[in-house]
Amino acid sequence: MHRREPLRERTVADRPLLDTIRWMSAALVAIGHAMGLIFTRNMAGPSRLDPLDFLGDLRGPAVIFFFVISGYLVGGGVLERAQGFRWKSYAIARFSRIYIVLIPAILLICLLDGAAHWIDPASPLYAGVWPSGVLGTEPIDTRYVPINWVATFLSLGGLLAAPVGTGNALWSLGYEWVFYFVFPLLVLPLARFRSLLLPLIPIVAVLALLVACGRAIDASFFAMWIAGAYARVLNDHADVPRWLGWAGVLIAMVALIASQFLKPNPCFLTLAFGFALYLSRRPAGERGLSRRFDRPLADISYSLYVTHFPLIIFLGFLLHRAGYLPTAGLGVGVLSLAMLAGMTVASFALAWLFGRLFEQRTDSLRKWLSGL
């Protein structure tokens, strides 16, 4: 690989495929949660050859794509701008991006959970543990405790404590939030040496420490994020052979299929590195699914990710009360597929509303905070 001068700052617009992956990943998470709520599943030994099981389980790999893309866009930007890095503008940008949607999402969670509790305090969706396990192992009503409130408002759900109520999907934001600030702390002290390899020394040390402390899953998520960051550096500074990028695609596909049969965590880590390897090559001729739909849908992908779960659970609650959704779930049929389609459409509609009201105002909030 030949080193050359970096190009202009990389954005999602430079890689239209990232728009496709962003909204499709968010959609897979939403669809997977809806399927886990609606369909019957043999939890003692689900068939890994069942297309429904495979589709529903894609919500795990979809989150992995989010980690890598976040590292590519945010972590890679830190490395590219290390010499002129400004903590104030960076922190404001990260805060604006997360909290412009997070606060309204928390209010939505409280509104829908509260309405369900007011209608039926003994509902098995909120007061019990749903048999499929898609709602977690603890009743939703028990998650309204002080430590969960603190973790949710600090955007540390999943790390400090569980997210409040039906905020299950907020767990990954806790990791993102920590990565946003730990990564610059690790790499910036060595930035004056103008080396892209020296920052790997403290990074590897932290990853090793996490593994030694029994936090291997946290280390793997951080490694995925870092892989995305360095993929952008390679993309900007080196001529990665085309065949190597496509080898990354092959590795990612094999890891994705293998995750249905083997232990998922090593497969997910391999999936992340394969995807990062693909992102490290120049996107010559790279295309998304559709320019007409990809960008508008990608622009509401964050809103879709953080709002779909409380909405889907509340819709499931209404269907259960009406007698259409038994706790044991449903088989594949007209009714269950109609439920799945309805929940998916409703999730996108709510995400569009959140996008219009909040997410598209991210830059306005950032500029306002900078003006303070």
TrEMBL record:
- Asked if the Swiss-Prot or TrEMBL record annotates the protein with the keyword Cytoplasm, the reply is no
Q: Does the keyword Membrane apply?
A: yes
Keywords tagged on the record: Acyltransferase, Membrane, Transferase, Transmembrane, Transmembrane helix
Q: Which GO terms describe its molecular function?
A: acyltransferase activity
Acyltransferase domain: residues covered: 18-355
Membrane-spanning ranges: 21-40, 60-79, 99-119, 147-165, 177-197, 203-231, 243-262, 304-324, 330-354
Q: What is this protein called?
A: Acyltransferase
- Source organism: Sphingomonas naphthae
